[in-house]
Request: fold
Amino acid sequence: MNHVPDASPDANPVARIDAASDARRGCMASGASIPPGFTRGIDASGARATAEAVIAALEEAGLTLLTLPQTGFSTRLRQSSLEWVRDAAQALPPDRTRIRPAVPSAAAIDRMDRVLAWIPRIPADKFVLRRVVGARCLISPMTGRHLYSWRRLGTAIGADHKAVQRWHAQGIGLIVAALNAR
Reply:
């Protein structure tokens, strides 16, 4: 008799990541967003942070970050200080005549600032995990898809895409542990 491995999202970190991406797509399709109370690390009901909720919040923050206009008074100075945002900006075509999505609300920008501050909770000596988590949270505002696929991210840092998925899960785990420790 063949044994079928446990298919629950908790058994496999990659399945947890896929479940969080599905949840994000559901939130985007319904027009909902991450509950504002969650961005402090605990959601409004007092529940502890989970990997799925952290991934969804980071992806919403990445989407908001890439939706911000690149001109005028903005968080440009803060944006350009993040290495993975500079890499993404350089990868974009120089053509500025493309259609831009609507500017995010002030509440969405505030949530973005709070959520992106979670990435430095990954210890500085684990800079690869920081880079993977930061790059993977970037969502294209035009397509709703990740700016960096697992394979593209693996190629960029010179690693196998499965290793990148494990590192992402480890980085998310460190953020969840830091949020729940408060």
User: Anything to note?
Assistant: Residues 9-91+101-181 form one domain. Helices lie at 13-30, 51-67, 76-80, 83-91, 106-116, 127-136, 150-157, 161-181. The first helix runs from residue 13 to 30.
